[in-house]
Design brief:
A hairpin with a 5-residue loop joins β6 and β7. The protein is 54% helix and 21% strand. By secondary structure, the protein is α+β, with helices and mostly antiparallel strands. It has three domains: 95 residues, no CATH class; 105 residues, Tetrahydropterin Synthase, Chain A (2-Layer Sandwich); 43 residues, no CATH class. The chain is rod-shaped, with a radius of gyration of 42 Å. It is built from ten helices and eight strands. The N terminus is likely disordered. The strands form three sheets. It has a three-stranded antiparallel beta sheet. A three-stranded antiparallel beta sheet has the order 6-7-8. It has a two-stranded antiparallel sheet with strand order 1-4.
Length: 284
């Protein structure tokens, strides 16, 4: 009796888990076959009027999941093209396979470093399996949107504000991997996740602006100090070169006077070179 009971209920248990049952295996039962025959007879009697109710067109980007007396026919989706359904016994659901995008509403998030920020994003996904999208979840689009909002809050709550601002692409890839793994049993393929905007409080914006300005000022002072140090080294090397040649020093002196005279029209009185005076004294 135990063996008979297990063999009797094992097909129903398997079908309830998978949601895929072939109606051609005789599992409809006697009543099911009677209703199916009556439905086919009714469609034949009312022909050609019944053709408007029995023939359906499935577009190239669509698939139709047909239920016959509550069971999915052949365990796979129908389409594209013409499809025949029986009145009273068959119902079908159209599933769009094109890429769908939706915006994640702005989520107020408390980051790891205790900063409150508002982040929104956009998710691109498509239905990969029409059977799973119909049989495993009541509304695949609403479920995907809710899961995306929850995942965004959970992931960003473990990151600091600086990481969120600097590593947007890496964080978006992590969210995409988590969503794709979670929605696989729903027949959904998440193609891309993007973080559009990160809004900070006004006080935090002012603090970050002051910090950036202080960093720029410090960097400018360092650059100016390095420039002065390099200039002093160059002057030291030039003085060493000029000290080795007195004639070069005199030429530099005359060049400087020429430059001053060209810029300012004035009379310049300058002493004679000391070396020339020493030469005259030695002659006397």
């Amino acid at each position: 009796m135990e063996t008979q009971r297990e063999s009797r209920f094992s097909p129903d248990k398997r079908s309830s888990q998978d949601g895929l049952v072939d109606s051609a295996d005789g599992s409809l039962g006697v009543c099911g076959w009677i209703i199916l025959i009556l439905s086919a007879f009714l469609a034949a009697v009312t022909f050609p009027l019944s053709i408007w109710f029995c023939v359906k067109i499935v577009q190239e980007y669509e698939r139709a999941v047909v239920f016959r007396l509550g069971r999915i026919i052949s365990g796979k989706a129908k389409g594209p093209g013409l499809m025949l359904v029986l009145p009273c016994t068959d119902t079908f659901i159209r599933v769009d396979l094109r890429i769908i995008s939706f915006s994640i509403p702005p989520q107020e998030i408390l980051t790891k470093d205790s900063v409150t920020t508002t982040v929104d994003g956009v998710v691109y996904y498509s239905v990969d399996s029409a059977i799973k999208a119909v049989a495993n979840v009541s509304n695949v689009h609403v479920a995907t949107q809710q899961l995306a909002q929850t995942t965004l809050r959970n992931i960003l709550g473990t990151q600091t504000l600086s990481n969120i601002l600097s590593n947007r692409e890496e964080i978006a890839n992590n969210i995409q991997a988590i969503l794709d793994n979670a929605t696989h049993k729903w027949g959904v393929k998440v193609d891309r996740v993007e973080m559009r905007d990160v809004r900070l409080p006004v006080q935090m914006q002012r603090a970050m602006a002051a910090e950036a300005e202080a960093t720029r000022e410090a960097r400018a002072k360092v650059v100016a100090a390095e420039g002065e140090m390099n200039a002093s080294r160059a002057l030291k090397e030039a003085s060493l070169v000029l000290s080795e040649s007195p004639a070069a020093l005199q030429l530099r002196y005359l060049q400087t006077l020429n430059t001053i005279a060209a810029e300012n029209n004035s009379t310049i009185v300058f002493p004679l070179p000391i070396e020339l005076m020493q030469g005259l004294l030695n002659r006397k």
